[in-house]
Specification:
five-stranded antiparallel β-sheet, 144 residues, mainly beta, binds zinc ion, globular
Length: 144
């Protein structure tokens, strides 16, 4: 028997469409050179790096992958924070909104859950390399 999935939603920051369907967060992805493209389904549990894609869609280790909203096709790169991070919105059961940032580098495990300028959760063995830069950038953006 399947366990009841957590009632957490993920939204596109641009069009606010729901990106989570059943137990997957759905993205359109492209290799940086644009030669490979397809659908990528991420696990909705923050810090879980398992994903599903068609077997023909393979990215090599440390390849940069562009993530797009499958509804409005906007590039989800967190340009104000870091070119290597993707940003989406999480809405929890209490309807609290958080910004979720994760690395778009294949094989790099780094995820941040942010509320205003605070890191609420940090996951992944590669996340430490982003922390200082990330915090200073967030403060910089909030100070504008
Ligand atoms: Zn969108």
């Amino acid at each position: 028997m399947k366990t009841e999935p957590m009632k957490v939603h993920y939204l596109c920051p641009n069009c606010r469409s729901y990106l989570r369907v059943w137990n997957n967060i759905i993205f359109t992805v492209k290799s940086a050179e644009g030669k490979k493209q397809g659908l990528l389904l991420l696990n909705p549990e923050v810090g879980n790096y398992t994903y599903v894609s068609h077997p023909s869609l393979k990215f090599f280790e440390s390849e940069k992958v562009e993530f797009f909203c499958p509804v409005c096709f906007s590039n989800l790169t967190a340009k104000q924070i870091n070119e290597n991070l993707v940003k989406i919105i999480m809405v929890d059961e209490q309807l609290h909104e958080f910004d979720i940032y994760f690395s778009k580098i294949a094989g790099q495990h780094a995820t941040f859950k942010i509320a205003q300028d605070n890191i609420i959760e940090r996951h992944g063995e590669h996340s430490s390399s982003y922390v200082n830069y990330f915090m200073s950038k967030l403060r910089e953006n909030l100070g504008e």
